[in-house]
Amino acid sequence: MEKTDFLAIRRSALSALVFCVTIMAVSAGYAAFTSLSIVDTGDALSKNAWNIMVSNLDDLNSKTTAANNGSAKAWVNFDGTSCSPNCMIRASHNVASVVRNNAGDYTVNFTTAMPDANYAVVANSGDATNANFWGPVMYPRDLQTGSVKIWCAFDSGTKYDPSAASVVVFR
Q: Domain check: are 90 and 165 in the same one?
């Protein structure tokens, strides 16, 4: 047998062995990973390595949750003049729809509900065609886990349908 044939067979065998060991390791890791619980059996090295990994994942999860606290949980930019009854949404995050209940009275429906009604709402309105427009103020009302009502009105109390409206929810 020539030396090149022997090397080719050796490389193929080594590749097959590495492939089989990788499949076994991935299978074992996947089976253990799906439970994500502290290991209390097995040898000390693999047990400690697994427990450290689970601890790191828990730590990463808590840091990610802490980092996202206070970020916008929902926001929407919509046209309050083009509603029948759903308004035209220009862009949004976690908003399923905006419904016009009456003139200047809207309900913003969340795609994923808030955990409770203790969230903050910031809303503004304007006239998309008039840069000098000093218009009505947006008032958040009736905060629910799945929606928030917004009123848009002038100081006089007269409700108004703005062509440019934005609502941001923080939790």
A: yes
- How would you classify the pairing of strands 164-170 and 137-143? unpaired
> Residue 61 has what pLDDT?
57
- If asked whether residues 7 and 20 sit together in one domain, one would say yes
> Is 148 found in the same domain as 98?
yes
Question: Is pTM beyond 0.85 here?
Answer: no
Are the beta carbons of 37 and 53 closer than 8 angstroms?
no
For the chain, 171 residues long, the average pLDDT of each consecutive 10-residue run is 52 52 52 52 60 66 58 92 93 96 95 93 79 70 95 85 91 84
Tokens in use for 82? 């083009």
Q: Where are the beta strands (DSSP E) in the chain?
A: 72-83, 87-93, 95-102, 105-110, 120-126, 137-143, 147-153, 164-170
Instruction: Identify the domain boundary among 68, 96, 117.
Output: 68
- Name the CA radius of gyration of the chain, rounded: 29
The parent domain of residue 24 ranges over: 3-68
Supply the pLDDT for residue 117.
94
- Are residues 80 and 61 both part of a single domain? no
Residue 20 is predicted with a pLDDT of 46
Q: What is the DSSP string of 145-166?
A: SSEEEEEEE-TTS-B---SEEE
Bridge partners for 7 per DSSP: none
Domain count for the chain: 2
